[in-house]
Structure to design on (165 residues):
């Protein structure tokens, strides 16, 4: 599995980087408060100070357009392998019936906060992603022990033009 680097910043700044490197595997996500530039590679990243994740499991690839929700889930170190196993067990092609176009489970290189990234088509409701996260994170025995603090979800529009979707 590959490495995912995520840089956060203003839309203008990240869009300049996105356009400067058309041959790199980059996706740009625009949120209400900030934008993200996602770089998927096995090589060195373009970013100076990214959040670095290991791709643990995925269904599909990051789209160039659409919507995305990222669920950040802090998991205690001693339960990370169990958490990964339980999520991977539920990550099947059948999840596409939720209406998602892709789903990625990312393990942090530093820290304890995993990222689940669900992408949908631009006309679909972001509620689809929230329902998917609820499904993926439910029914885990002892889950109170897994999570040292609450997780949270951020929503984004995917694509060069943050207003097009």
């Amino acid at each position: 599995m590959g490495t995912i680097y995520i840089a956060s910043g203003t839309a203008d700044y990240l869009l300049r980087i996105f356009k400067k490197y058309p041959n790199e595997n980059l996706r740009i996500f625009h949120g209400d408060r900030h934008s993200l530039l996602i770089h998927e590679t096995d090589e060195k990243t373009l970013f100076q100070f990214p959040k670095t994740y290991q791709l643990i499991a995925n269904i599909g690839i990051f789209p160039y357009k659409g919507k995305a929700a990222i669920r950040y889930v802090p998991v205690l170190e001693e339960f990370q392998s169990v958490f990964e196993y339980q999520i991977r067990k539920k990550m099947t092609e059948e999840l596409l019936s939720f209406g998602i176009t892709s789903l990625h489970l990312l393990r942090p290189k530093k820290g304890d906060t995993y990222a689940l990234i669900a992408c949908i088509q631009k006309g679909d409701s972001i509620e689809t992603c929230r329902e998917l996260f609820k499904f993926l994170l439910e029914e885990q025995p002892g889950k109170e022990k897994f999570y040292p603090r609450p997780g949270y979800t951020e929503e984004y529009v995917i694509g060069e033009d943050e207003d097009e979707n």
